């Protein structure tokens, strides 16, 4: 009885071995190219070595690292799936290994990404391995992330942002026009985002975002920061003297953004163009407006206090001037 049991066990083991011997060896990826770093215009060959490939299909797929949902099939077996002459697939046999080689010529920026060598084992599983292709190229700043003009009210906070593509990864540097001191201190700031708190009118103006990675020329953008602030009035001559029957000009200088509405008053009554009065306004750089009231042939009723008033959406201001009589004509 014991001998019979041993015989049955041996028969079972032989049967199992025979069954296993009938199964095809499972395919494996024995080697794949390491990460590749290339310049624009160069060529690269990505190699994927497959052991026991049998009748299984081997293919290459490309995935963009930033857009992982975007997958492009490059090849299936020895056949290309893309109609670009820059791509070529070669299949070579070396001993028991099949070498699937993907060659890309005249490399461009968009060739960068993750290239996956895959063996479709069945409808639900596959064997894969990945090699990354990096393409060195100059920095390119993205234009669509922020408007070129940013408007904030005085006292508010703002964040100026710049994002650049490129390889190696670009560094971002911020600076102001004429290399002026930044509101946070220093002539430059490194980082994608420049944060400014409690804005003052002196903070307005162009800010330059510069991206550099040592490849080609740096890329730069200008972001114009506009700071809305209430009018500020200065009067060059608060007291003005003139003799009767001579002309005189009263002047006030207003700095404001947005541009202010400016009006003149005499003894509480608004002055308009006409008669002895001629009012003009001249815009100047740095959000400055100069307003002038010209009085022709001064009469005694013209002497007294004048008020220059300015207002915009942020606030208002006013300043007083005094015109008094002099014995002799005065030239300004």
From TrEMBL:
PROSITE patterns referenced in this protein's UniProt entry, alphabetically: IG_LIKE
Signal peptide start and end residues: 1-21
Short name of any one Pfam family annotated for the protein: Ig_3
Entry's Gene Ontology BP terms: cell adhesion; neuron projection morphogenesis
Bilayer topology term: Single-pass membrane protein
GO cellular component, one term: plasma membrane
UniProt keywords, alphabetically: Cell adhesion, Cell membrane, Disulfide bond, Glycoprotein, Immunoglobulin domain, Membrane, Repeat, Signal, Transmembrane, Transmembrane helix
InterPro entries: Ig-like_dom (IPR007110), Ig-like_dom_sf (IPR036179), Ig-like_fold (IPR013783), Ig_I-set (IPR013098), Ig_sub (IPR003599), Ig_sub2 (IPR003598), Neural/epithelial_adhesion (IPR051170)
Subcellular location as annotated: Cell membrane; Membrane
Record SUPFAM superfamilies: Immunoglobulin (SSF48726)
Domain Ig-like intervals: 27-128, 138-224, 231-324
Protein name: Putative lachesin
